[in-house]
Amino acid sequence: MIDSQSIGALLYKHRTGLVIGGVIGLWSGGFVGVLIGAAVGYWIDKSLRRAATLTPQQLFFRATFSVMGKLAKADGRVSENEIRFAREVMDRMNLDEQKRREAIGFFTDGKEPAFEIASVLRPLALLLRHRPALKLVFVEIQFAAAMADGEVSGAEQALLSQICHELQFTDAEIQALLSRIRAEQAFRQNSWQAHEDPARGAAVLQQAYGVLGVAESASDAEVKKAWRKLMSQHHPDKLVSKGLPEEMIQLAKERTQEIQAAYDRIRKARGMR
Questions:
Q1: Are the CB atoms for 259 and 231 separated by under 8 Å?
Q2: Which terminus of the chain faces fewer neighbouring Cβ atoms within 10 Å, N or C?
């Protein structure tokens, strides 16, 4: 049973969140706003403190699946495709039973209406402030999760924007990333079929340019520069050394393979060495 002294200690410990939340609530909703704002501020402050005790790898792992759960629930209902995508990610990571239970638990937490993504994104943003490659990987996973059911809904788009802004991506970077992820999905689905149906070749080549994030009119030097940059950003060993959980190294390897396959297709079409 929690006594008054314990309650007082908890309130004092999280006083910053209480005060900030209360002030915001007073400004927006009077006395009732103070109570609501203080409660939200307390919860966020408590979550941030708990997150601060995690290692970078634990924080990245937790944020990945809880934010994925939030995205899945963004439009009110979690689809079978979204659940399948989360399971496929766990399978590709080759998680053991304990880590899989943790991932499912975080995904479930994210689906809860009371879950605030700021509780994991703000400490994650601090962790990744000087690790742009890790930020990119995190956001790429979330974009792919949002597209798991075929298209990004308005609610998912709004949540993705919030996620990206918390991690300090610009609107232009968000749109470029969205286009690149769409191209990657199409390239992955269609590239193997191009061998049997030559008519698909032109479309797949166009998608390959999209994977690298360059226009078909780009020079050979620009294509090569984009390829090198993406390969460097997604190099598995570099990412793990910067805090990527080792369980996610397979995801990074798959990304480099896709980038390389897109570059090889462009290089062959252009006759590049």
A1: yes
A2: N
Tell me the two tokens of residue 3: 């006594």
Cβ-in-10-Å burial (0-12, 13-18, 19+) of 172 comes to exposed
Backbone angles phi, psi at 246, to 5 degrees: -60, -25
Spatial CB neighbours of 135, under 8 Å, sequence gap ≥ 6: 128, 167, 168, 169
pTM for the model: 0.75
- Residue type at 1 in one-letter notation: M
For 25, 46, 190, the CA distances from 211, given in Å and listed in that order, are 45, 40, 13
Residue type, 170: T
CB distance 79 to 72 below 8 Å: yes
Q: Which residue has the tokens 């053991």?
A: 96
* 49: pLDDT strictly greater than 80: no
Report the distance separating Cα 28 and Cα 35, nearest Å: 11
Most confident of 45-49, 95-99, 173-177: 95-99
- Please tell me the distance from the alpha carbon of residue 22 to that of residue 16, in angstroms, as a whole number: 10
φ and ψ at residue 93, rounded to 5 degrees: -80, -10
